[in-house]
């Protein structure tokens, strides 16, 4: 009996692919009835056994690979290293700017003692100390005058002008002179040279780097706001890729 059923089933299954669609539907019913009687798995319209691996849904495509943040991560590391390198110089620039700020005469102590190794602040253009004007120390460099009259918080006018500047990377610049057009004055010569260096600097990284950093920071700092992350992206791009004016001639104690 079952042998005959098997034979019938084989005939139906062999003929099935060549049948018109309408006939197939009826044949499929017969095929599955025969299969049920023979205790065989039922088949679908393509004669695939239902429940077999072939019939099962195709495997889920693998999830898209996690975005590759390695390039952005490298840039971020370079940024952190640069920030760490600049930190003492930026803090120093703030201290010097505060100590020498204000209108009227300039306190002599910072001019004479806040430079590298506790020496005088030097002009970043000509590398010479600031010279005092008026009074008993007229025409004398700040450190020499201070050596003769150390202590206290005495002030003096400065001969030929003094510029205390914090440049784009947050570090200090000290110059002789009065800002203006006179290119013989240290501050103006330095500004011109700085502008030329900036013009020579290659353009910043483009939108692609901006986007890669944004994606990386979104992954790295999900708790920060979008605005905070965009600010950080801009800081990273400025710090790592913008024109780097370097560190001035005056250095805080303990820094190279
Ligand atoms: Zn100078």
Write a short abstract of this structure:
This protein has 256 residues and is mostly helical.
What do you see in this structure?
With 256 residues, the chain is mostly helical. The chain folds into two domains: 1-58, no CATH class; 70-241, no CATH class. Helices cover 47% and strands 7% of the residues. A hairpin with a 5-residue loop joins strand 4 and strand 5 (172-176). Helix 3 crosses helix 8 (226-241). It starts with a helix and ends in a 15-residue tail after the last helix. Bound molecules: zinc ion (ZN). Residues 123, 125-126, 128, 175-176, 186 line the site of zinc ion.
What is the number of independent domains? 2
Task: Determine the fraction of residues in helical runs and give it as a percent range.
Answer: 40-55%
- SSE class: mainly alpha
Order of strands across the main sheet: 1-3-2
Unreliable stretches (pLDDT < 50, length at least 5) are: none
- Overall 3D shape: rod-shaped
Please describe the topology of this protein:
Blueprint: H1 2-15, H2 21-37, H3 70-100, E1 106-107, H4 108-113, E2 132-133, H5 142-148, E3 155-158, E4 162-166, E5 172-176, H6 186-200, H7 207-220, H8 226-241
Antiparallel strand pairs: 1-3, 2-3, 4-5
Helix pairs in contact: 1-2, 3-7, 3-8, 7-8
Bound molecules: zinc ion.
